[in-house]
Each structure stands twice: as C-alpha cells, then as structure tokens.
Design a protein that fits this description.
The protein is an alpha+beta fold and about 140 residues long. It is built from two helices and seven strands; from the N terminus they run E-E-H-E-E-E-E-H-E. The strands form two sheets. It has a four-stranded antiparallel sheet with strand order 3-6-1-7, with helices on one face. Strands 2-5-4 form a three-stranded antiparallel sheet. The chain is elongated, with a radius of gyration of 17 Å. The two termini are about 30 Å apart.
C-alpha cells in the first residue's frame, strides 16, 4: 500500500473538508480520467483496491496513472483507553479529495473498456465520481 517514505511531522492536524479543487483538475498524462464530484477522505487501501480493478481491465495493453497520494496520517487510539493521555498512534494514511480532482488516468485501451474499468474502480472509492475524457 502507499505510504510516505519520510515526513516532516509524524502526526498531523485533521484536515478541513470543503471547497473545490484548484490543482489536479485537468487530465495531464492519459486520455481518460476519473474525476471526483464530492469531497471525502480516501485511504491508501481504497486507492490500492481501485488500482487492482483497473489493472485487471487493462490487461497488458493500457497504462494507468494514480494522481493522488495518501500523505496525511490519521491517528487512532486503542480500545478501552480513557479520555486524555495524548494523541493516538498513526493508524493509516489518507488523501483529502475535493470536487473536481482527477484521481486516476488511463490510456492505451478502447474508451468503452476504460469507462467500464473506471466505473468499477469508482465502486471501491467513498467519493462520487465521473468518467471524463481529454476532450472535455
């Protein structure tokens, strides 16, 4: 799964959700993309699950780009621990997604196959998303 190699700070503040994306809004590498229409946190496990679905559809013909990277740590305290006693240990990593972000890109396969692969990958993600092409 995706995790950062090193970080400046081990634990981070909670990210605020909201607003529209200002970066990652256009398709840069491939011909087809999966664009978010709602805001949510996406974990490294969800990104990996979506990548596996798309890889299965491309076989050996297509190419996939993952435009998002989970670099924000989320902490979790153990069960039955009383209030207080500091912040919990880092449990997993997330990436905050904003509406308008292109999360995945693909090229080298037919548009119908790419659309089906992206729609199946979208089932694995907690954000609502739509299939977009380079023309749009």
């Amino acid at each position: 799964m995706l995790t950062p190699k090193r970080q400046k700070y081990r634990k981070a503040h909670k990210a605020k959700r909201g607003g529209k994306a200002t970066s990652l809004v256009d398709i840069a590498f491939g011909s087809y993309g999966l664009k978010a229409t709602t805001a949510h946190w996406v974990t490294s496990r969800q990104i990996e699950a979506a990548r596996r679905v798309m890889t299965r559809y491309t076989r050996k013909g297509g190419r996939i780009w993952i435009r998002i990277f989970p670099d924000r740590p989320v902490t979790q305290k153990g069960g039955e621990i009383p209030m207080g006693k500091g912040k919990g240990a880092v449990d997993h990593y997330i990436v905050p997604i904003k509406p308008g972000m292109v999360m995945f890109e693909m090229e080298g396969i037919a548009e119908e196959v790419a659309k089906e692969a992206m729609e199946n990958a979208a089932y694995k993600l907690p954000v609502k998303s739509k299939f977009v092409t380079k023309d749009q």
